[in-house]
Amino acid sequence: MNSDTDYKQVGIDWCRKEDVGLANAILLVGQPISVPIPDLLRAIVKALPKGLKSIARKNITISGSAKLLVLCEHAESHVVDGMGEFVAIRIGERMAQFEIISLTEGHEDTVERLSVADLGDEMQRLKTKDTAADSHYHCSNRNYRKPRYFSGRLPAAKDEDEWETWIDQVEAQVEEWDEVPDKEIRRRIRESLRSPALDIIGDLKKEDPAAPSSRYLAALEMAFGSTDSGEELLMRFYSSEQKEGEKASEFVARLQQLLRKIVRKGEMRGERVNVFRMKQFQRGVLYNDNLLTQLKMSDLGESPNYVCLLNKVRKIEEEQTLKKGKRSVGSLSKKEKEVTASSRKAEASSTGNESRSDLLERLARLEAKMEQPPTLSQPVGLNWTPRAQRYPNFCFGCGKPGHLQRDCSEMADPKTVNKKLIEFIMAKPENSQGLLTRSNQKSSTPGNQLQ
After folding, report:
1. What pTM did the predictor assign?
2. Which long-range contacts (CB under 8 A, 24 or more apart) does 171-175 make?
3. What is the pLDDT of residue 150?
């Protein structure tokens, strides 16, 4: 039918774009379905023969009809010829039917057709029994963290990264894509490149179409990377040690950056990276022996990968910081506790006796005035006679009248002194009770006399 021919041509063009062999391709055509994409793809993987390498989906409209197309790549060639005409997919409680389109010619004689009864039996089988999903499939259309663009031009554009930043991000993501086929990794790397960096990869692909992704990164390293030789980088790696004030997790990250450069230079095989990283980390940690002890007691193994090692080191650092904070709170010595208690007691006492201190200070100022006679001066042109000065007539030591504190031989009585002082201060100006009047003192001007 014409629609099948249209779908087939779309599938062939799609395979060329995704670099998928036609003999290994399985094209499914069905009605659009509103379910989460990961659930749909997992259900398709369960229903198809084991050995899928990649799977992608997209919606298209042909002859006014909207369709959902799913392109699958299988490890074996011509596996589609024995699958029949339709396949039933169970997604949760829902069922969906997809037409199987072969993208090769000359194998129609081996195709087994599914009748309506066979299709019903197949759908019933899927309802009653789950088939195990292939653990090595990859969905090329699944969302992933895409690296920023890199062109190799200086200065880099606003939406581009410079070489060191870009390669660090890409290599970290390649480690995350451990189950992704290398063909897909190469495609993702090419997507993030612009000329002239993309031209270098294009030339490499012409020379060796099957070149692995590691060759891509090595070629870019030669063109844009560090000019240090592999031997120089190795010497720097083996002499690396933890710096004073540097966290162990920061030291691990620094070792990882050197290792990536060494691998790109071809001085170390990728499968040996974990071993050398762990050994140099153990040799280079100078300021946290307890951390190494805890690492040995953990279940990391002898050579964990970078992500596992970094994650474990950070957890141990957080635990040590938490314990250190708790110890600092309860580690006051006995003497420090006594000093703290006495200072708090003194503070409380000073707060309660604040009024007494103020009174004593005012008493001292008054007594000093009594010992020094006031200096009187007459304003020019005025017949001025100063009023009598008033002073307390009791001792500031014992509180008894008739003498001063310097001549006192009695026992001190602060309570009586405070009481009399308060009465004196609170007395009204016209009240002269309890005051001494110093008479017979002449002013500096004849004729003026204290009253």
Report:
1. 0.40
2. 171/217, 171/260, 173/144, 173/145, 173/147, 174/213, 175/305, 175/306, 175/307
3. 93
